[in-house]
Design brief:
alpha+beta, nine-stranded mixed beta sheet, eight-stranded mixed beta sheet, 26 strands, elongated
Length: 1027
């Protein structure tokens, strides 16, 4: 009903809305009482545009500078080296952070060479590149070289929220009315009687402003906590001779930082050593082409991303001395892009506000006309007294207060309140929501495309079985390998890895690296290998790190005798495909004929069928010298071993998957593993059903677009998938109107995360690139946490519906009772002070009570809410109309026949009746607020005691109502009531509860139940069909 009158400008895209769409709905909003408060949590488009222009100019300046510097470097490289410049000395950089920063940012390679390269800079900043910074020096270094933080805008104080709450236009008008009322009242009735009416309004306004400011301030603290959590980025450094993980904000000049694929470069620095380091500088320069960093181009800039390779870097500049710090300083408080539900409720508030304005004007006109007619009938039209002026002022104040009540300013803000509450609770549940809209959208998700490793499994990997020298062995079985096989196996394990075996200060050995590589290194140590000895004897010449496209890692080394040997490790089928020899039962390399290939394939399948992740290890001896400009050999390898790695399922995965199925959410596993391993894991955790479909990424990739669209809804497992396959699957599903959630941890997952409706990055295994593109960071990498986000997303949607249902009921009754009464009797039974209290109950307190309800398990027994579905459902209208009719009937009867029904007599009969009407109206809202806890269930008390906010709001409302009626009558135009009238007020309010039960038994229209693609019957659509 209301939504049909909402302009189309309020329908914005759920993902990446254009600036035009955002501006259009802002322009369509009218009747904003408090612009500062209403638009506090939406994007400031003017500031955003200004920021983007500023950033563009900075990036262009950097881009031009970098291009010029690189050209200069190439020019210098072409000039024969002559006399070394005496201008740059090591001592120049000692305790001189500005000069250090300038050298890096301006790409002064010549100066770096003059001081002796990175070793010279290390000498200047007094650090040993092998030992790193000493922990005892951190404070001194921060004082001398600065901290790795950028300037941020200070957060708002509580009094700023009070000041913003006072910017409500209607409250300002009422303040003026109150002041005028005090002036006129003092002139008419003297002191103190003349103060009461105006002072009552001022005290009510003070209460409204205080409660509003407290609510908004607490909400800002929640967002502040979330912002702190978002900024928790860590990196690996060498300190005190040991490798450890620290926050990037704790870095100091002189730190030795370890970089790998997907890392964000945490500060400006100088390349020490590394392999195939490729850095994406687009965040600074806007250039899309990645840059190779090596000894010739050694400078790394903070804020850039490692696209490939690995390296060690010496930190040379931190914080505001880096270009990234200067760029971050330009970030203004532009706000986050608003959610679709916020926009829609702004539209609802606009429509309701216009209706309220009409009623307000009509009420004022009716009261004024009746007053003038009465004066005319008494022939007093030409004579006006201060009492008449006071009456007109009261009429105007009542009309303005009706606008205060009628314009549901808190409606869009309730979404922010509910989302902030959900985000805070989700943070406790190990889910960090980076974007408000994600929590909202997750409530509508229809499918989740999840990774396997670390999300469905524990990511605590161990080698379970190994095939080597023609035999399959358990990892814990004694090794009886020929010496030459054992030697080459350990060489491959310890050399072909991006991980390290390190000792801490206590002498304890630990492995630092990815779970897969750690498992293999642990196995090497179990075999009796010595990591340090092997690495010291063999020189690493070149490394090609593992990535999800190649699905293998390669290194080339120089053995002690001078022999050049390459090692390769990776996906079993990929590595097997580049091998033409195999180590036989005798430990000798022999040709790999077709029978051997079948044998190895059977071993791989046998391991995979047992849900083991399979990898192959191989090597090749290279004749002569190796040209470092060439790639590592990609064929002709000798197969050493097939390794089967066990990664157990997480304990709660099966239950979480069953929950998704009951909730109408399809779970699809997208993994790079062998299809047999993927099938086994998917079957074990309940993802792959009998009617489900498993496919390999390359197979899906080669299908036509029509075939992909036909297959996509049936796919439950995609194995051997690349990031491109995942992206295509997401596109196909979204094209079929699915609301898609995607998990990712690698750098190459970023496009799929960006394309999805909700992107989940892993907090433990995830790279910084993936986290930056994600909407939610799953801090414990657990699939069950994703299901919690879906549950909270649904809770947000339902909670806002509850609040809207409650607020609409109060709006309708308050407007109608004042308007009809004004038309018939010439007076409004609810005064300005009373209406302000009612507004506080239904707006700020109502939002706190209903919009912050925790989710219940029943939410996941319903299907996802369709995006095309009306927000204010038929069920809600049934409840609103039913409760409104009952309340208006009772209040109208009391208003027009209350004195005779209640047998009220005497001079204060009217005052008692009006107080009783006000009291009854408030208790009707109290019990209706309890009714609104569930839109369609009869049992409204389920879980109420666990919602402490709801309980506190209810007790506070009732307690303050008693104070207003019994003790603040002078200000609120009430008189104390006897206990019979109190009980009657409560009883009339309580009757709304059995009426709610009757209303919920009235059926509403249901749509046809459809069958899902996976063979399961889909639950009935729409909130009105829930039972």
């Amino acid at each position: 009903m209301v939504e049909s009158y909402i302009p189309e400008e309020f329908d914005v895209p759920h993902r990446h809305p254009s600036e035009e769409a955002l501006r259009n709905w802002r322009n369509a909003v009218s009747l904003v009482k408090n612009h500062r408060r209403r638009f506090r949590y939406v994007a400031d488009l003017d500031k955003r545009s200004l920021h983007q222009d500023r950033v563009s100019k900075i990036k262009e300046s950097l881009r031009v500078g970098f291009l010029a510097m690189r050209a200069a470097i190439r020019f210098m490289d072409g000039i024969p080296s002559g006399r070394q410049s005496d201008n740059a000395k090591v001592s120049d950089f000692h305790n001189n952070p500005d000069k250090l920063a300038s050298m890096v940012q301006n790409y002064h390679v010549k100066i770096l060479r003059d001081v002796g390269g990175v070793n010279g800079v290390a000498e200047a900043v007094e650090v040993n590149l092998d030992e790193g910074v000493k922990s005892t020096e951190l404070t001194v270094r921060k004082e001398n070289y600065g901290v790795n933080k950028y300037t941020e805008k200070p957060s708002k104080s509580f009094f700023m929220f009070v000041w913003e709450a006072l910017h409500d236009l209607t409250l300002n008008i009422l303040i003026v009315c109150a002041v005028v009322s005090i002036g006129v009242g003092l002139a008419t009735d003297g002191f103190p009687d003349g103060l009461y009416d105006g002072l009552g309004i001022l005290l009510s306004i003070l209460l409204v402003v205080t409660v509003t400011a407290v609510s908004d301030y607490r909400q800002s603290l929640q967002f502040k906590d979330l912002d702190k959590e978002k900024k928790k980025i860590t990196c690996h450094v060498t300190r005190d001779g040991y490798r450890k993980k620290v926050s990037i904000y704790d870095l100091v000049v002189g730190d030795v930082v370890h970089l790998s694929i997907g890392d964000q470069v945490p500060a400006d620095g100088i390349f020490i050593s590394g392999y195939s380091l490729l850095v994406d500088e687009s965040s600074l320069t806007g250039e899309s082409e990645a840059v190779h960093i090596d000894e010739k181009k050694p400078f790394l800039l903070g804020g850039t991303k490692v696209q490939d390779g690995s390296a060690k870097m010496l930190v040379a500049a931190v914080g505001m001395r880096t270009e990234w710090g200067k760029l971050m300083e330009t970030l203004s408080e532009e706000g986050e892009t608003e959610t679709p539900l916020q926009v829609k409720l702004n539209g609802v508030a606009t429509v309701i506000g216009k209706i309220g304005l009409i009623f307000s004007v009509l009420t004022f006109l009716v009261l004024t006309v009746r007053f003038l007619v009465d004066k005319a009938m008494r022939d007093e039209l030409s004579s006006w007294t201060s009492s008449d002026a006071l009456s007109m002022l009261d009429y105007f104040a009542t009309a303005v207060t009706i606008i205060v009540v009628a314009v549901p300013e808190g409606l869009p803000l309730a979404v922010t309140l509910s989302l902030a509450f959900a985000m805070k609770k989700l943070m406790d549940d190990k889910a960090l929501v980076r974007h408000l809209s994600a929590c909202e959208t997750m409530g509508s998700s229809t499918c989740i495309c999840t990774d396997k490793t670390g999300t469905l499994t524990t990511n605590h990997m161990v080698v379970d079985k190994i095939w080597v020298s023609g035999k399959t062995k358990g990892a814990k079985e004694p090794s009886e390998l020929p010496e030459n096989v054992s030697t080459v196996l350990l060489q491959c394990i310890f050399e072909c890895t991006g991980s390290e075996v390190v000792k801490d200060a206590n002498g304890q050995t630990s492995v630092l690296g990815t779970p897969t590589e750690s498992a293999i290194l642990d196995y090497g140590l179990l075999l009796g290998g010595d990591f340090g000895t092997v690495r010291s004897e063999i020189k690493l010449l070149k490394m090609e790190p593992f990535n999800s496209e190649k699905k293998r890692m390669s290194v080339i080394t120089a053995l002690p005798g001078g022999q050049i040997r390459a090692f390769c490790k990776g996906a079993s089928e990929i590595v097997l495909g580049i091998c033409d020899k195999i180590i036989d039962d005798n430990g000798e390399p022999v040709e790999m004929y077709e029978e051997k290939v079948k044998l190895i394939t059977n071993v791989i399948n046998e391991f995979s069928d047992k849900a083991l992740r399979t990898l192959c290890l191989a090597y090749i001896d290279v004749e002569g010298e190796f040209d470092m400009q060439k790639d590592i050999p990609a064929s002709g390898y000798t197969l050493i071993a097939v390794v089967g790695i066990k990664d157990p399922l997480r304990p709660g995965v099966k239950v979480a998957d069953e929950t998704c199925l009951e909730a109408g959410i399809t779970v699809r596993m997208v993994t790079g593993d062998n299809i047999n391993t993927a099938r086994a894991i998917a079957t074990e955790c309940g993802i792959l059903t009998k009617s489900g479909f498993a496919i390999e990424g390359p197979d899906f990739r080669t299908r036509t677009e029509e075939e992909q669209n036909e297959l996509a809804p049936r796919i439950q497992v995609m194995a051997r998938s690349s990031p491109t396959d995942k992206l295509e699957l997401v596109k196909r599903l979204r094209g079929l109107s699915e609301v898609v959630a995607v998990t990712g941890d690698g750098t190459n997952d970023a496009p799929a995360l960006h394309e999805s409706d909700i992107g989940f990055a892993m907090g433990i295994a995830g790279t910084e690139v993936a986290k930056e593109q994600a909407d939610v960071i799953v801090m414990d990498d657990d699939f069950a946490t994703i299901v919690k986000v879906a549950k909270w997303g649904r809770a947000v949607y339902i909670n806002i519906q509850k609040f809207v249902q409650f607020q609409l009921t109060v709006n309708i009754v308050a407007l109608m009772i004042n308007f009809v009464s004004a038309c018939i009797t010439g007076s409004a039974p609810l005064t300005a002070v009373q209406l302000l209290w009612v507004n506080l109950i239904m707006d700020t307190l109502g939002a706190l009570a209903l919009a912050t309800e925790p989710p219940n398990d029943g939410l996941m027994n319903r299907p996802p809410v369709k995006r095309t579905e009306s927000f204010i459902t038929k069920t809600m209208w049934r409840n609103v109309i039913g409760q409104s009719v009952y309340q208006m009937a009772v209040l109208f009867v009391l208003n027009f026949a209350g004195k005779s029904i209640l047998n009220l007599q005497g001079d204060n009969a009217t005052a008692i009746l009006n107080t009783f009407i006000f009291n009854t109206f408030v208790f009707c809202q109290v019990f209706n607020e309890v009714n609104s806890r569930d839109i369609d269930k009869i049992n409204i008390f389920h879980g109420m005691l666990s919602s402490y906010v709801f309980i506190v709001v209810m007790i506070s409302t009732v307690g303050f109502q008693i104070i207003i009626v019994e003790f603040l009558g002078t200000f609120a135009s009430t008189v104390p009531l006897d206990w019979e009238l109190w009980l009657l007020s409560i009883a009339i309010g309580f009757v709304s509860m059995p009426i709610a039960v009757i209303l919920k038994c009235i059926p509403v229209e249901k749509s046809v139940v459809k069958q899902q693609h996976d063979g399961y019957d889909r639950l009935a659509d729409g909130p009105e069909e829930r039972v």
